[in-house]
Design a protein that fits this description.
This protein has 104 residues and is mainly α. It has helices at 9-24, 31-51, 58-92, and strands spanning 6-7, 55-56. A two-stranded parallel ribbon has the order 1-2. Helix 1 (9-24) runs antiparallel to helix 2 (31-51), helix 1 (9-24) packs parallel to helix 3 (58-92) and helix 2 runs antiparallel to helix 3 (58-92). The mean pLDDT is 91.
Amino acid sequence: MDPEPVPATKARAVFALGLVALLTGPFIGGVIPATIALMLARQVSREHYASGGYLLGARWVRRGRALAWAGIVLALTALVVAVIAGLLHFAGSSGGQDFAPGTD
């Protein structure tokens, strides 16, 4: 007798963490929930494989994994934009001391 298929509780957690990563990605804070979502997605995938198809929720895991990667990409993009803005600000400022005219 085969067991009844049951939904994976971690699958929805992966999706929720991926969504949080996507929403907080532009603020660079999305890296932490994205990393947790990707590690949890790996665990769920192993459990899903070991269950022989009696564990449901693979679609939630795929969506959560995609959202987590999107959050990481947004965080990296925000970091690159911040570094470029900082370099442009640094390049535009006057360097060195400004002496009065006629000073040797």
